[in-house]
Amino acid sequence: MSELDAALEAIDILVKTFQRNESRYKSAKYSEAEARKDFIDKFWIALGWDVNHDQQTNPYEQEVKVERGVATGGGQRRADYAFYLAPNFHDVRFFVEAKKPFAEMATKENYFQLIRYGWNSQTPLAVLTDFEQFHILDCRYTADLETALNRAVAKYHYSDYTKREKFAEIYWLFSREAVAGGSLEKRAKELPKPRGRAVQRGLLPGRYQSIDESFLAELDGHRSALARSFKNRNPKLDSETLTELAQRTLDRLVFLRFLEDKGIEPSRLVERFGDKGTAWEDFIAASRRLNGIYNGIVYKHHDILDGDTFRVDDDAFADICRSLAHVNSPYDFNAIPIHILGSIYERFLGKVIVATDKRATVKEKPEVRKAGGVYYTPEYIVRYIVENTVGRLIAGKTPAQIAQMRFADIACGSGSFLLGVFDLLLNYHGHYYNHNPGKARKGDCIKREGRLYLSLRKKREILLNNIYGVDIDAQAVEVCQLSLYLRLLQEETEATAQQYHFDFGKQALLPPLAKNIVCGNSLIGRDILDGQLFPSEEERKLNPMNFEDAFPEVMKRGGFDAIVGNPPYVRPHNLTPQMKELLWACYKTFIAKSDLYSCFMERGLSLTRNDGFFAFIVPQTWTSLESFAAIRKFIIQNARVRRLVQLPKKVFAEATVETCIFVFQRSSSKRDISANTVTVESLGADGKPHFIRDFPQRTIEEAYLNNFQLHGKDENREVLAKVKAEGKPLGELVRFVYGFKTADDDQFIHNRKRYKESKRFVRSAAIHRYYYDPPSEYVWYVPDRMTGNANTARPGEAARFESEKILVSRMGKSLVATYDRGGLYVKDAMLLLAQAPRYSLKYLLGVINSRLLNFFYQEFFVTIDVLKNALLSLPIHAINFSDAADKARHDEMVAKVESMLEAKKQLAKAQTDKDKTYYENKCAALDRQIDRLVYDLYDLTEDEIRIVEDTRE
After folding, report:
1. Which among 609, 620, 582, 725 is positioned nearest to 668, based on CA atoms?
2. Model-level pTM greater than 0.85?
3. Cα 556 vs. chain centroid, distance in angstroms?
4. I need a labelling partner for 844 at 20 to 30 A (CA). Which of 6, 570, 614, 759 fits?
5. pLDDT tens digits, residue range 185-203?
6. Which stretches does DSSP call E strand in 139-232?
């Protein structure tokens, strides 16, 4: 029996039960709680969900979260059912709201409530059911009371459940089996898309806009309004102070809305600001009271904001409060996942308030503008990194042992990775105590529905013991602390908050995090500045920090047990000259063409204690580019490379950079490092890793410039070794020179011959395999600087262009070369001139352009452009000209290359389709013949040839 048929059989029993006693079940006396127990719970169990948690006993890792009796004086706070899929317990897959069969279910209030849950959680579909009726709602649109009834996607009556075809529609959309297969996402794509420019822009009720886009736009608008209001009434405020004041105000309002929606604060306060005094006076009074209850950075007394002399346009502030108030706002902070809030804030932090004498405006930070935006790390990547570092370290350990461990993000931003670490620790402790209830100390847990949940006290203890972060941006530090506080209180209620106060008297709910999450420069310490004179303002911007001062106990014990994160990606030319000089002096892996993240890699590994883990998501170029050779060498000298992880091309929606994950384990043992095995995996957007291969770390030591071979294969290495052994370096057979460099002045390049010294000219992009585009430009070139005419292109050595030569393109990952008998001038390309006696350049050209040498180059050197040293290291089969057979192969290659060069010329001249097809076929045949000759030169077997032929170019 299939799972569908088994579900249908179970549902059939429920339907017959309902039919037999329909009048009772539809009476006013029959409660919602009874309907859920008798029918709705069993319905979802039949669809494969563990509603009663018979298998998933850890309360922190349950795929179905059920709310029983959660209505409060402020209204219902949570949906009745929230469905998740392991291992991601952050993101709800869909909600179900239950009703009793007595009253009308399809009201705009009921629809609005459920759509609000779904939209805030970014779930496309939700279910409203009393068992008699089953309505599927579209939650992609902003919740709007007046349009809510238009959002039904499908409606079913309980009599439909026994019709196999009808029930299958429900089953293949909402069963656990279907949801795990992506059914909801597929169905959402099939739903009608909104039409009209106004709808797309979100100008109409029921607008189609994601929660993060919508809330970010609202925050940006409120920040602008606060900036203008604060500046108008307090004209002496500077940019930095305005930025801090506006953010602190918004943080307080958002955090209060969170407390309201969670039910921790029993009454709605934001909507009543202005009832007792002005809106601002009520806000400050509430902040004062909340600081006494909660503590933390958010409500901490601010000398300016909470001061008597600070002035505010109360009408403008009251408008913001009305907009954010629960009664008017579409946002439900009990439903918005905390990591989504973090992603919103990450982008929010990319802008600052810029003040002049008379006005204040919001602008993008210069570093964000240069980087092309702010990119928030997706949850599945955070989870993978945290599980493969912190998760591996704590596996099998007791809470007492874990309490001694320290985990950090040294470029924490809004705190996404620290939230991931905190979440993992909470889940682990919850699982541990439920399996070992006798080991829980008094006060560690509270019992609810037969299971142990971590107490607020225990969660505070974990946060203070284990979580550490650093960021140079003070606003990021504030948001990071705010995010951690939100996670700390996520499962709390008014009752648990009151119980904490009852147990601990006047102790605030939130622990101080000033010593855990620190504002400072992770790369520049105060000791680095010793003896250097900086203006005080410049030094303040640098914000130097010594880890020994910020985290003395951690550093005394050798560093952090794990460091995770996503460091900033900044090319050296986008850094200030001062910053570059400091980094070049301090970090041996940082060179002119590398990246700031290289410094974070070096710093992060040095701050990790022996046997501790270190993992980042960074651009994958560090694994192969010549400019990152120093960091690769540093890594293999100090760490075991545990994992290299290939990622989807579009990890960050707006970014073009391809990224990867690395997981290192710090080691002081050279033997352990050399004996280590590296695992290569790929990670899809579903968060599931897929094994690719293992290889010994010692092969990195042997590789060209210690390339990490992220995309290599085991069988490829044997072919590479054979090719390398069969040849001698190309650099021994040719004389290498560059064409014009990019830096040469383009003002002497023209599209017609303007001077008698002008020479035919092509750029690197015009170079192709065995031909180049006809020159359409000329360069004014005087080969001798002694002519006294300085107004020409830089001459260098004219012989390089006048000589017979091979032209090699510098762009792209493939070897692309052609031949010039002399007289062609070239820019941004590499030139190979004849040097070894008896060797024809046409022989070398055939070998360089061959499939085998391209395979070798792409696998062994792994670069994004052709590099000089890599090119000259190519192993070229050496000809023994005393051996008649060997000489014959040399001459055969020369003849085939000459034929290819002529065929390419004829192809370029071809006018008819017949001629084009003829020469295309001829070139393809010659390519195959040249490749076969090269395989023969290197003595490859048919199996080895197959490996080369099957490898992607």
Report:
1. 609
2. no
3. 33
4. 759
5. 999 999 887 654 434 433 3
6. 152-157
